[in-house]
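writing this on my phone so excuse typos. first protein, seq and then structure
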Amino acid sequence: MVLFSYSTKHLLKKDKVRFYYALKGRDGKSGIVKSCKIDHLGRTVLLVPEKYAEEVEEFLKFWKCKFDKKEVLIKK
């Protein structure tokens, strides 16, 4: 699993809304959280399965979000 923490401080309010719609989905369309089976742990923290890490990284780069990426082990 990969833990992403990101910042949206640089986004204008209208762009933050668009970002969160793309992240979580809207109007019956699924966002990246659902399509990549992501656990949204906090306001700006995502726990991503390793096979989707590159896709999430590209998503955050597209929105020009600063982010930290850490590989973590989860005990089930």
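second protein below, same order as before
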Amino acid sequence: MILLRQPMDAGTQLVAVFGVGLIGSALVDALEARGAVREGRHAIAWEDPRERAAQLASIEGELAATLHSRSCETLQVIWAAGRCGFSASEEEASAERASFEEAAAMLEAVARRSPGVALRFLLISTAGGLFEGQRRVDGRSSPTPARPYGRLKLGQEQRIQAEGVPWRPEIVRLTSVVGPARAGQRRGLISTLVQNGLRQQPTRIVGRMETLRDFVWVEDVASFVARRIGSRGDSGADRVVTLASAKPSSLAEVQRLVEKTLGRRIYVSYSLAPSNDVDITFSPSLRPPGWQPCDLVASVRRVHRDALARGATA
């Protein structure tokens, strides 16, 4: 968890970012670019229940103390944590569900200790996991998660919106996020294709060549969220937004785009799996005001430049 202090027009906001993977680290960078100052960093042993409980208790005390000592008016929580991905098992999702509940209970305790502070909870959720198998998802579509990961994220959404919670809930649903490869972080399809292509190593893709997916660039996501939480004038904003390009690409199109960017053929094998070959596409009507994502060509080029800058073999 990374703690930041963000000056506002009418006071100071404390921002607690849980999760420092691809999305969380980009969010911290975007907040710092907008003037937020880092206050501290706290490790959380998500895999060790006993150690995690002690760490969350320590974080509770520090949050309450910092809110008081800094005379903060708002505590903004951003939840981007979690090791589970699209293919997570029921056991993995269950473990993550338990750790999320412990963190939510800790934040409720912080709220009780800080009665004069406004608490806001922004959850990074999944559009693909909630609407798997649906085409042209729009505001009338209902989540129908088909696997443990989607059910986990839907449960998190329901938890933060439950009656009587002490925070203002906000949910940002993401499609497939594209970003540079980093050690210790889960790699997405495009960063894997670029890395393996540069090293002339094969990539195995589970799905059909014509399977459709929606991709968004991680820094676009981070900039949108940073602007959203940095504004006091969003009281009328939708509590649930979906960040999608609304321009789906087939897996074969993604492969060709990576090949064009690298200037070489890449080695790909497609493994047919009924559970992972359904299309997931989104209607342009879902795009919220102020959301202007870059196109997939620019995203692939950025991943490529970053890989070369970090020493990947060309």
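The longest strand covers residues 118-126. thats all i got for now
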